[in-house]
Amino acid sequence: MTRRSLVRAGAAGALVAVSAGFPVSSAVARTRPRFSGSPFALGVASGDPSSDGAVLWTRLTTDTLGVDPLPAPRIAVRWEVAEDEGFRRVVRRGVEIADERSAHSVHVELRGLRPHREYWYRFAAGDEVSPVGRTRTAPGFGFGGGADGLAFAVTSCQNYEAGYYAAWRDIAAQDLDVVLHLGDYIYEGAGKSDPPTATTPRRHVGPEITTLFDYRRRLALYRSDPDLLAAHAAHPFVVIWDDHEVDNNYAGLISQDDDPVAVFSARRAAAYQAYYEHMPLRRAQVNRGPNLRLDRTLQYGDLAQFTMLDTRQYRANQACGDGNKEPCGPEWEDPSRTFLGDEQERRVLRSLGRSRARWNVIGNQIPLTAIDQQAGPGQKLYMDGWAGYPVARDRFLQGMEDRRVRNPLVVTGDVHASWACEVNRDVRDPASRTTAVELIGTSISSGGDGTDVPTDVLPDNPQVKFQRSRRGWVKVALDRKEARAEFRHLPYVTRPDAVPTVDAAFTVQDGTSKLQRV
Predict the structure, then answer these.
(1) What are the residues whose beta carbons fall under 8 Å from the beta carbon of 271, sequence distance 6 or more?
(2) 148: CB partners within 8 A, 6+ apart
(3) Which among 510, 464, 452 is positioned nearest to 484, based on CA atoms?
(4) Of 416, 327, 323, 427, nearest to 369 (Cα)?
(5) Burial of 75 (0-12, 13-18, 19+ CB in 10 A)
(6) What average pLDDT does the segment 393-399 reach?
(7) Are 432 and 425 in contact (CB under 8 A)?
(8) Residues 6+ apart with CB under 8 A from 417
(9) Which end of the chain is more exposed for a tag (fewer CB within 10 A), N or C?
(10) Does residue 45 sit in helix, strand or coil?
């Protein structure tokens, strides 16, 4: 993370520049911006690895809220990629334009790299050089590019106000191939009243966010956290949103407060644009108004396929008034209600059916396991989750069974607790046969310190093998024989110095949908 000064040489008014090894054309050099400070306040990131590349990201801003003006509406940003951290073996370099219309963000789509390799990258603008990031390409199929092992992180829900990001510090220090972020990267709520308290140690800036300026500022605030910065610089991310990137519990174009569709459509368009601007996503994910296709598939050779779902953008409204409710008959069972949307559902099932991977990892926002949320007689289900859409849930599970999808491993966020589940086939029967394994990762910080006391509904849910409400993340390692999951939990998040421990570990053997505690 060193910065190096610019070395210049020129004649006849045309500059030829070299900045930390970056070649700069005379045309670029003549538009050399001067910044009030380092324009890399939000760091660097990479994401969506392929077997021959990845996306590299940065956003030019000199302050951690991303609101200070920059010296030009369009700024040339140089980048380079090397096989070593010292950049002695540079393999790719180029120039991208950071435009104020996209918040001066940069998305470089790399191609032509070797599979299953580490690379280092950095950016430069004017005289300033960014921190160094590390990325890793995905394995290919055979010929030296395949892989027999893979490790990844399962993360979600990082309310900035609720606590510090010790979990990200732990993730940054791990040897991982990729990090899955399953939603609630930001929270849209208004800042709490000052001063900070023991339970809300940090503060959002401003009221509830609704405009493009608001969403950009909130995302910049989150991206400025040093532990999150370190994790992004250390590993490639694969991201998907949930609700708080826009509005709590929104469904399609239906907001939490039932705003007029035109009003909420404009808000969703602003949120989606800001999300793209701050994430290492490909140009295929650029939003078109209030629409942005985020579901996608990433291949890790024949060992794993990552299928990322979008369970917010296309869904029907929640039934029964939302929350944990007793199923409410015709509304709940309405076959026209969709969770993924018809087109995404077809895409996802087609992709899963064609997969040649040993492990099919499904990146999912809301629990697929139908968990009875009421202790004792009766049944209450989480209406915001898959259990609130029983026909769509049954169709999805049946689709995987019909296609004989191998080793479906569902990884999920949302509920601010860790759950290890065997997905029950019948939404009304927790003891029905299992069809997949689901690892529900707890939050990075949302919900505060949490508790070690399990929920009182466990006796009613034999499909649930473990539950805790501490903060942290899940580390998953795959090989040809088994998947192993470690639930890494923190004792607290309201102070920044927490150290995680492994609270529980489970394995899943190839060809089974059963969890074994180790």
Answers:
(1) 188, 209, 215, 245, 246, 247
(2) 303, 479, 480
(3) 510
(4) 427
(5) buried
(6) 98
(7) yes
(8) 440, 442, 447, 450, 455, 467, 468, 469
(9) C
(10) strand
Question: Rounded to the nearest 10 degrees, what angle do helices 226-234 and 166-173 cross at?
Answer: 20
What torsion do the CA atoms of 472, 473, 474, 475 make, to the nearest 10 degrees?
A: -110
% of the chain with per-residue pLDDT over 90: 90
Cα gap 29→14, rounded to integer Å: 8
Domains of the chain as residue ranges with CATH: 6-136 (2.60.40.380), 150-517 (3.60.21.70)
How many other CB atoms are found less than 10 A from the CB of residue 312? 23
222 φ, ψ (degrees, to nearest 5): -65, -40
What mean pLDDT, rounded, does the chain reach? 92
SS3 394: helix
- Half-sphere exposure (Cβ direction) of 345: Cα atoms closer than 13 Å: 18
- Residue partners of 448: CB distance under 8 A and separation at least 6: 162, 163, 199, 471, 493, 494
The dihedrals phi and psi of 29, each to the nearest 5 degrees, come to -65, -30
pLDDT for residue 188 is more than 70: yes
